[in-house]
Structure formats: C-alpha cells, structure tokens
Amino acid sequence: MRSESPARRAQPTRRRRAPGGDPIPVPDAVELSAAENADLCSGCVKCCTYITVEIDAPRAAWEYDQWIWALHHRGVRLYVERPERWSLHFDTRCTQLGPQGRCRIHGRHPMMCREYDPRSCERRLPLADIRAWFDTPGRFERWVRAERPGHWVRLVAWRRARAARPRRPVSAARASASTPRAD
User: Fold this and answer.
1) Do 47 and 122 meet the contact criterion of CB atoms below 8 Å apart?
2) 89 domain-assigned
C-alpha cells in the first residue's frame, strides 16, 4: 500500500457526486510554492509529452471504425476508464519544452499547465481505474469483439455494406487535389 505524504493526509476534504451518484471525497488543493512545485517535478517531463482528450464512447459502427482508423496513426492511443469514460491519447512533446526539460515560456504558459497539480502525477499516483488501453487497431478490434459483441456484429455488417456499395468515380479536379505534389 502506498503511503501518503503528511500534506496530503492533512488536506480537508469535501464531497462531490460520482457519475453513479455516490459521494466521493475530494481533497482540497493545498497551494504549493514554486520551489515545492519544481521539486515535485524534478527530473520529470511526463506531463509535457502527451495530450489526452476525453471523447464520447463509441456506439455506432462508424464511430468504432473512426477510432480504429485513428489507431493506425503513430502516437495515437485510446483508453477506457471505469466508470465508462473514453479518452484519446496523443504522444506528442510540447514544443516549448527545452532540451534540459525546462519550459521555455514558464510564467506565460497556458492555464492548463499552471493549474496542473504535480501531486496527482501518474509518476506518484496510480492512473485512474483503466479498464482497457489500446495502442493498435488489432487490440481495439479484439476488445470490441470480446467485450461488445453486439457492437462488433454491427461493425462487421456496416463494413460489408460499405464495401458492397458502388464507388463513385473520382473527378479529375478531386483526383489532382488529393495527389501529392513533388515540389
């Protein structure tokens, strides 16, 4: 079991409602000085190397197909937390992160960075209750097939129906616009 710091234990708590309606204790943030904040982040730049965006859970076949398509791209991942919350994760380093791991625009950096509490960093605390993590389309498809069999059946049927449709001819203007230039 992980031990808590005295500062974390001493924090007053308030209650908020979980999506299911159960009250969850939420510690009130204790202000950190710049030195304390820097010390907690010492040697780590993890939060500056990715972006995570919460998305709607896929329900329709085309939505599953959209996320399968996204997972074919380098640096894109998808995960599901309990209770069901879906997030799209992009491995991408902040352009303002200097070679020594220092922010080049500190003091002018976005509010998202300023409000980040390093005490909640995954380096120190376990991540939320992650139910599934997908870094390849194959893993995602296997999960859908096993965990969402009805959705899988609809996805396969949708793909078959789309593949059976006659393709529209591509106009010359559209074809030239989609052809990469050699310059």
Assistant:
1) no
2) yes
**H helices present in 2-110, as ranges:** 6-9, 34-41, 61-71
Tell me the Cα Rg of the chain: 22
In a domain, 1, yes or no: no
Place of tokens 């399968």: 68
CA-to-CA distance for 88 and 17, rounded, in angstroms? 24
The answer, as to whether pTM is greater than 0.85, is no
Amino acid found at 172: A
- DSSP label of 146: H
Range of the domain at 143: 34-163
**95: nearest Cα among 27, 55, 51, 48:** 48
Query: What stretches of 10-137 adopt beta strand conformation (E)?
Result: 13-17, 23-27, 50-55, 76-81, 85-91, 130-134
Q: Are 77 and 134 in contact (CB under 8 A)?
A: yes
pLDDT digits (tens, 9 = 90+) for 48-84: 889 999 999 999 999 999 999 999 999 999 999 988 8
* 110 within domain boundaries: yes
Q: Is 87 helix (H, G, I), strand (E, B) or coil?
A: strand
**Which residues are CB-contacts of 20 (< 8 A; sequence separation ≥ 6)?**
83
In a domain, 105, yes or no: yes
